[in-house]
Design brief:
By secondary structure, this protein is of the alpha/beta class. 44% of the residues lie in helices and 21% in strands. It has a single domain, classed as Vaccinia Virus protein VP39 (Rossmann fold).
Length: 218
């Protein structure tokens, strides 16, 4: 497990600029091209803010925050505290700079650490993990910890296997980039949410994956 995490950490620590450009785009052409080629990326963004509920005044945890794209948007929309955590130092540095540029650094905190071992002192109204579980081999302990930290809603994305898209994803990540990825299915996700004791859950099938909503009113 540690070796797998280190491979993912090594990969993501090298690509903060490349990763951020998937959302921002260096030009109108590239931004719209990414919307076509990486449709799933933009679908999960829209689903997140459609299903997260009211944001003003909330505390938000962004697991696997990367360059801070979601964290910053939550802060823009009125969250009073946003904590982003990621194990790649260069991603955290990029996120901190990004928050300053967008003038939301006063309510954003970015932590370079492993989520499963980090000690959080308070729960959060909204917890998100977008693109995070793609690189998690054994998600059960993550789900249980997330459930204990979630006061209201947990939103997450998951990739699903397919003959064409799944195969090319495996080739690009497992073989070329040396970064293991993991696929999910509907029944497996239902089990994860139930075993983590979420009060309710909903799983939405998107073009290239699943979007999960865990509800935990406390």
């Amino acid at each position: 497990m540690i070796a797998i995490k280190n491979k993912a950490k090594h990969y993501f620590d090298k690509i903060p600029n490349q990763w951020d450009s998937l959302y921002s785009g260096k030009s109108w052409f590239m931004k719209n091209l990414n919307r076509y080629l990486r449709k799933g990326l933009f679908e999960r963004y829209e689903l997140t803010f459609k299903h997260c509920g009211e944001i003003p005044g909330t505390r938000v945890l962004d697991i696997g925050c990367g360059t801070g794209h979601y964290s910053i948007e939550f802060a823009r929309r009125g969250a009073v505290k946003v904590v982003g955590i990621d194990f790649a130092p260069s991603m955290i540095a990029f996120a901190q700079e990004n928050a300053q540029k967008n003038r939301v650094s006063e309510c954003c905190e970015f932590i370079c650490d492993d989520f499963i071992s980090h000690n959080f002192h308070e729960p959060f109204d909204i917890v998100v993990a977008l693109g995070f579980f793609d690189y998690i081999r054994e998600p059960e302990s993550y789900f249980k910890k997330i459930s204990s930290l979630t006061k209201r809603r947990f939103l997450a994305s998951f990739i699903k296997d397919s003959l064409i898209w799944g195969t090319q994803k495996k080739i690009r990540y497992h073989w070329i980039k040396k970064c293991p990825i993991y696929f999910y299915n509907f029944d497996g996700l239902v089990r994860l949410y139930k075993e983590a004791n979420f009060t309710k859950h909903q799983i939405i099938s998107s073009s290239k994956g699943f979007f999960g909503i865990g509800i935990n009113p406390k």
